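Internal tracking record. Fields below are filled automatically when a chain is submitted to the structure queue. Please do not edit lines marked as system-generated. If the sequence contains nonstandard residues, flag them in the REMARKS field before resubmitting.
Queue: standard
Priority: normal
Entity type: single polypeptide chain
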Amino acid sequence: MNVVTGLQKPSSGKVYIQGYDVAKNMSQARHAIAYCPQRDMIFADLTVWEHLLYIAAVKQVPLKSLRSAAQETLALVNLEEEAEVLSQDLKRGEMKRLSIGMAIIAKPQIVLIDEPTSGLDSTSTRNVWDILLHVRGASTLLLSTHDMTEADVVADRIVALTTGIIVCNASPNYLKNIYGKCSVLILHVLLLAENSLVAILLTKLMLSRLMLGKPDKEQG
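SYSTEM-GENERATED OUTPUT FOLLOWS
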Protein backbone atom coordinates (compact mmCIF):
# COMPACT_ATOMS: atom_id res chain seq x y z
CA MET A 1 0.00 0.00 0.00
CA ASN A 2 2.83 2.39 0.79
CA VAL A 3 4.29 1.85 -2.68
CA VAL A 4 0.94 2.39 -4.41
CA THR A 5 0.36 5.64 -2.53
CA GLY A 6 3.89 6.88 -3.16
CA LEU A 7 4.91 6.79 0.51
CA GLN A 8 7.64 4.28 -0.29
CA LYS A 9 9.71 3.78 -3.42
CA PRO A 10 9.37 0.39 -5.12
CA SER A 11 12.39 -1.91 -4.99
CA SER A 12 11.51 -2.94 -8.54
CA GLY A 13 8.71 -2.44 -11.02
CA LYS A 14 6.38 0.52 -11.43
CA VAL A 15 2.94 1.59 -10.25
CA TYR A 16 0.64 3.57 -12.53
CA ILE A 17 -2.44 5.46 -11.33
CA GLN A 18 -4.65 6.89 -14.08
CA GLY A 19 -1.67 6.56 -16.44
CA TYR A 20 0.75 8.38 -14.12
CA ASP A 21 3.90 6.75 -12.79
CA VAL A 22 3.55 7.17 -9.03
CA ALA A 23 7.32 7.49 -8.54
CA LYS A 24 7.68 10.23 -11.18
CA ASN A 25 4.30 11.98 -11.11
CA MET A 26 3.29 11.58 -7.49
CA SER A 27 1.08 14.67 -7.20
CA GLN A 28 -0.96 13.81 -10.30
CA ALA A 29 -1.36 10.19 -9.24
CA ARG A 30 -2.34 11.09 -5.68
CA HIS A 31 -5.02 13.43 -6.96
CA ALA A 32 -7.05 10.38 -7.99
CA ILE A 33 -6.68 8.32 -4.81
CA ALA A 34 -7.61 8.31 -1.14
CA TYR A 35 -5.87 6.14 1.42
CA CYS A 36 -7.20 4.69 4.67
CA PRO A 37 -4.31 3.06 6.57
CA GLN A 38 -4.73 0.24 9.05
CA ARG A 39 -3.88 2.59 11.91
CA ASP A 40 -6.58 5.24 12.28
CA MET A 41 -5.09 8.71 11.75
CA ILE A 42 -7.39 10.99 13.73
CA PHE A 43 -7.20 14.01 16.03
CA ALA A 44 -8.18 13.21 19.61
CA ASP A 45 -9.59 16.68 20.34
CA LEU A 46 -11.84 16.97 17.26
CA THR A 47 -15.38 15.67 17.00
CA VAL A 48 -16.55 13.36 14.24
CA TRP A 49 -18.27 16.28 12.49
CA GLU A 50 -15.17 18.49 12.76
CA HIS A 51 -13.02 15.73 11.27
CA LEU A 52 -15.23 15.44 8.22
CA LEU A 53 -15.42 19.20 7.67
CA TYR A 54 -11.66 19.57 8.06
CA ILE A 55 -10.77 16.71 5.71
CA ALA A 56 -13.30 17.89 3.13
CA ALA A 57 -11.64 21.32 3.16
CA VAL A 58 -8.15 19.80 2.90
CA LYS A 59 -9.29 17.76 -0.09
CA GLN A 60 -10.61 20.94 -1.72
CA VAL A 61 -14.30 20.18 -1.62
CA PRO A 62 -15.96 23.49 -2.64
CA LEU A 63 -16.79 25.69 0.35
CA LYS A 64 -20.50 25.76 -0.46
CA SER A 65 -20.53 21.94 -0.48
CA LEU A 66 -18.58 21.29 2.73
CA ARG A 67 -21.55 20.81 5.03
CA SER A 68 -23.54 18.70 2.57
CA ALA A 69 -20.50 16.49 1.87
CA ALA A 70 -19.91 16.02 5.59
CA GLN A 71 -23.59 15.28 6.23
CA GLU A 72 -23.76 12.77 3.38
CA THR A 73 -20.62 11.00 4.60
CA LEU A 74 -21.85 11.03 8.19
CA ALA A 75 -24.98 9.16 7.10
CA LEU A 76 -23.05 6.74 4.90
CA VAL A 77 -20.74 5.62 7.72
CA ASN A 78 -23.65 5.57 10.18
CA LEU A 79 -22.17 8.04 12.65
CA GLU A 80 -24.96 10.62 12.78
CA GLU A 81 -25.61 10.01 16.47
CA GLU A 82 -21.87 10.39 17.19
CA ALA A 83 -21.43 13.62 15.20
CA GLU A 84 -20.56 15.71 18.26
CA VAL A 85 -18.51 13.02 20.01
CA LEU A 86 -14.76 13.54 20.36
CA SER A 87 -12.83 10.96 18.38
CA GLN A 88 -10.95 9.87 21.51
CA ASP A 89 -14.29 8.71 22.97
CA LEU A 90 -15.31 6.59 19.98
CA LYS A 91 -15.43 2.82 20.07
CA ARG A 92 -12.98 0.90 17.86
CA GLY A 93 -15.53 0.17 15.15
CA GLU A 94 -16.81 3.76 15.14
CA MET A 95 -13.27 5.05 14.79
CA LYS A 96 -12.67 2.83 11.77
CA ARG A 97 -15.89 4.01 10.14
CA LEU A 98 -14.77 7.61 10.69
CA SER A 99 -11.42 6.85 9.05
CA ILE A 100 -13.18 5.38 6.02
CA GLY A 101 -15.48 8.40 5.88
CA MET A 102 -12.47 10.72 5.86
CA ALA A 103 -11.05 8.77 2.93
CA ILE A 104 -14.19 8.85 0.80
CA ILE A 105 -15.65 12.28 1.58
CA ALA A 106 -14.24 13.90 -1.57
CA LYS A 107 -15.49 11.02 -3.77
CA PRO A 108 -12.08 9.88 -5.05
CA GLN A 109 -11.75 7.72 -8.14
CA ILE A 110 -9.68 5.12 -6.27
CA VAL A 111 -9.89 4.20 -2.58
CA LEU A 112 -7.10 2.18 -0.92
CA ILE A 113 -7.84 0.59 2.45
CA ASP A 114 -5.35 -1.43 4.47
CA GLU A 115 -6.84 -4.22 6.65
CA PRO A 116 -10.20 -2.46 7.15
CA THR A 117 -11.59 -4.82 9.81
CA SER A 118 -8.45 -5.88 11.66
CA GLY A 119 -9.22 -6.12 15.38
CA LEU A 120 -12.97 -5.52 15.01
CA ASP A 121 -15.75 -7.68 16.41
CA SER A 122 -18.24 -9.40 14.11
CA THR A 123 -20.88 -6.65 14.30
CA SER A 124 -18.39 -3.86 13.57
CA THR A 125 -16.91 -5.93 10.76
CA ARG A 126 -20.31 -6.33 9.13
CA ASN A 127 -20.92 -2.57 9.41
CA VAL A 128 -17.62 -1.84 7.68
CA TRP A 129 -18.39 -4.35 4.93
CA ASP A 130 -21.70 -2.61 4.24
CA ILE A 131 -19.86 0.69 3.82
CA LEU A 132 -17.24 -0.84 1.53
CA LEU A 133 -19.90 -2.41 -0.67
CA HIS A 134 -21.47 1.02 -1.07
CA VAL A 135 -18.09 2.62 -1.80
CA ARG A 136 -17.37 -0.03 -4.42
CA GLY A 137 -20.34 1.19 -6.42
CA ALA A 138 -18.88 4.69 -6.78
CA SER A 139 -15.09 4.22 -6.71
CA THR A 140 -12.48 1.63 -7.53
CA LEU A 141 -11.77 -0.07 -4.20
CA LEU A 142 -8.41 -1.69 -3.48
CA LEU A 143 -8.04 -3.28 -0.06
CA SER A 144 -5.60 -5.61 1.64
CA THR A 145 -6.84 -8.33 3.98
CA HIS A 146 -5.86 -11.65 5.51
CA ASP A 147 -9.54 -12.59 5.88
CA MET A 148 -10.75 -14.66 2.92
CA THR A 149 -14.37 -14.24 4.02
CA GLU A 150 -13.89 -10.49 3.80
CA ALA A 151 -12.35 -10.80 0.35
CA ASP A 152 -15.26 -12.98 -0.77
CA VAL A 153 -17.88 -10.54 0.55
CA VAL A 154 -16.35 -7.26 -0.60
CA ALA A 155 -14.19 -7.98 -3.65
CA ASP A 156 -15.05 -8.92 -7.21
CA ARG A 157 -11.40 -9.78 -7.84
CA ILE A 158 -8.88 -11.44 -5.52
CA VAL A 159 -5.12 -11.19 -5.95
CA ALA A 160 -3.04 -13.42 -3.67
CA LEU A 161 0.62 -12.68 -2.97
CA THR A 162 3.34 -14.98 -1.65
CA THR A 163 6.69 -13.34 -0.84
CA GLY A 164 5.73 -10.46 -3.11
CA ILE A 165 4.83 -12.68 -6.07
CA ILE A 166 1.30 -12.86 -7.49
CA VAL A 167 0.19 -16.50 -7.29
CA CYS A 168 -3.49 -15.96 -7.96
CA ASN A 169 -5.64 -13.38 -9.77
CA ALA A 170 -9.26 -14.42 -10.14
CA SER A 171 -12.85 -13.79 -9.14
CA PRO A 172 -14.16 -15.21 -5.84
CA ASN A 173 -16.60 -17.46 -7.70
CA TYR A 174 -13.83 -18.91 -9.83
CA LEU A 175 -11.72 -19.68 -6.78
CA LYS A 176 -14.63 -21.29 -4.96
CA ASN A 177 -15.48 -23.43 -7.97
CA ILE A 178 -11.89 -24.62 -8.34
CA TYR A 179 -10.79 -24.89 -4.73
CA GLY A 180 -14.05 -24.98 -2.79
CA LYS A 181 -14.14 -28.75 -2.55
CA CYS A 182 -11.27 -29.76 -0.31
CA SER A 183 -9.74 -33.06 0.64
CA VAL A 184 -7.56 -33.86 3.62
CA LEU A 185 -4.35 -35.75 3.01
CA ILE A 186 -2.47 -37.21 5.98
CA LEU A 187 1.05 -38.24 5.02
CA HIS A 188 3.34 -40.11 7.40
CA VAL A 189 6.96 -40.23 6.26
CA LEU A 190 9.83 -41.83 8.16
CA LEU A 191 12.80 -39.50 7.67
CA LEU A 192 15.70 -41.96 7.63
CA ALA A 193 18.87 -41.59 5.63
CA GLU A 194 17.97 -44.37 3.21
CA ASN A 195 14.54 -42.98 2.31
CA SER A 196 15.07 -39.22 2.68
CA LEU A 197 14.91 -38.80 -1.11
CA VAL A 198 11.54 -40.56 -1.14
CA ALA A 199 10.32 -38.20 1.57
CA ILE A 200 11.41 -35.17 -0.44
CA LEU A 201 9.73 -36.43 -3.60
CA LEU A 202 6.51 -37.25 -1.77
CA THR A 203 6.49 -33.83 -0.12
CA LYS A 204 7.01 -32.08 -3.45
CA LEU A 205 4.20 -34.12 -4.98
CA MET A 206 1.88 -33.20 -2.12
CA LEU A 207 2.71 -29.50 -2.38
CA SER A 208 2.19 -29.53 -6.15
CA ARG A 209 -1.35 -30.77 -5.51
CA LEU A 210 -2.08 -28.21 -2.79
CA MET A 211 -0.36 -25.04 -4.01
CA LEU A 212 -2.62 -22.32 -5.39
CA GLY A 213 -1.41 -21.75 -8.92
CA LYS A 214 -2.19 -19.07 -11.45
CA PRO A 215 -5.62 -19.52 -13.08
CA ASP A 216 -5.60 -19.70 -16.86
CA LYS A 217 -7.09 -17.10 -19.18
CA GLU A 218 -10.48 -18.80 -19.07
CA GLN A 219 -10.89 -17.89 -15.38
CA GLY A 220 -13.85 -15.97 -14.01
